[in-house]
Amino acid sequence: MSGFGLGKWLGRLSPRRRGEPAAPVSPEEVPVLLRKAAECYLSARYFEDASRLFEILGDYRQAAHCYEQRGLWAQAGDAWEQASDWRQAAACYQRANRFEEAARALEQAGERLDAAWLWALEVRRIDHALRLLAMLDQEESHTPAERAVVRALCESSGGDKGLASRRLRRLLDDFPSFGFSFAENQLLVRCGAVARRLGRPDLEQMAFSVAVARNLPDAEAGWESWSRERFGEGGLHSAPASCVEKTSDEAKESVSVL
After folding, report:
1. Is residue 162 assigned to a domain?
2. Would you tell me how many other CB atoms lie within 10 Å of the CB of residue 152?
3. How much is the pTM?
């Protein structure tokens, strides 16, 4: 441990006169002394040392908070798992780029849609993502649009890019009719990610168009940043057009894509 050693610290807690040996610590006192030591480390901003003591005490939530203060996201994720807080564990694992652990934690939390997205996007386990989607379809959990964008990602990664493009285009065409707001921003971010996976900047532009039309937070700023990156400083920066011409494949109506 950094700072002063734990043994020395525990010895200083026992009242004694100068020159006298430290009084023995009873088993009942150990948790109390450990917590005092952890709190002192915490006050001194020795977060990593504090987190280890909180783990010894079984206070995994406090340990996780300490690891987060140090930016030790993988250790924080492990501590949140020990506390059975799967959502927090998943968030920390994602910040640590431990995507497989994050996807498993999301499944434990019952967040199958987000887990399927992560399995497909980062872990590239398309088979597992599709199994989760099949469960969601059977349960009719989440909206058809939310399931469709994950399915399009699976198709874009699994080789059926034509179907993925048609599904994504149909989803964006029908977006105004879905009528929900809290998930709109995340849905459009995912549409943009699928468009990038497909190598379709036209569909990515269309996603920005929908976001701008619906006045979603930071939509115009995001569009300007994206257009500068794609077209350069002298390129297109005005709000995107609301319509992108369909390719011949996307004009086919033989496949139901939602």
Report:
1. yes
2. 31
3. 0.77
